[in-house]
Amino acid sequence: MSYPGGWRPHIESATCLDVRRMLKLGALVPNRETRGSWQWTNGDGEKVASVNYHATLTDGAGLLVLDYTHRERDTGERQPVTCRIALESLPCHYGGRRWYARCPYSQRLAVRLYKWNGIAQFCHRDAIKPRPTYASQRVSGAERIMDQRWAIRRKLGDEYSDLFSQPFKPKWMRWRTFDRYAARDAELAAREFGHFARLLGRVGALGFDE
Length: 210
Fold this sequence. Notes:
Layout: E1 15-18, H1 19-24, E2 33-41, E3 47-57, E4 61-71, E5 78-91, E6 97-102, E7 109-110, E8 112-115, H2 142-156, H3 175-202
Antiparallel strand pairs: 1-8, 2-3, 3-4, 4-5, 5-6, 6-7
Helix pairs in contact: 2-3
C-alpha cells in the first residue's frame, strides 16, 4: 500500500496502537469481553486522538474492533471507520503467552500497529510503501546501524519486535546463540543513541554533549 503523502512517512508521526499497553491497563483481558474508549495524549497530557473499542478474547485468540473517524485527504471531511483487528497469542519460552495484533492490510503479526494521516486503518509498518522510518534514521551515521539491527531480526526470523525492544527469540535457537545476537543488538542500539545524542549536543539540547 503506497503512502498518499508522496514522501517517506515517519513512525513518530503515527498514532501507535500497543497491544501490550492495552493488556497492562485492562482494555484487553483474556477470556473476557471489554469495551470502552482508548485515548492518546501528547507530552502535556492533552488528548490528541481517541477510539471506541470492543474486544472479545479467549486464551489464544480474539478480535479487537475500533470505531473512530478518519479525515479524507482529498475532501478534508471526516468519515466513520470501523477497524477490525484479529488478535493472537503465542506461547512464551518460560510459560504464559504473548499477544499480537494481525495487520488488516498485510496480515503480519506485531505488538504495535500504526495509524497515519491519509490511511484509514491501523496497520503494520511494513504494509506502507515506502517503508516508514524512525527519526534516528535521519541522523548521519545512524541509518547504517539501524540496517544492521534489522538484519539481526531477519536472521532470527523475527517479524514481531521493533527497534525499541530486543529481538524475539525463535523456539529452535539455543539461548547461548540468541544471547550473542541480543548482545550485538544492544551494542548497536547504544551506538545509535550516541549518534542521536551528539546531534542534539550540536544544536544545544540540554543534557547532551559532544
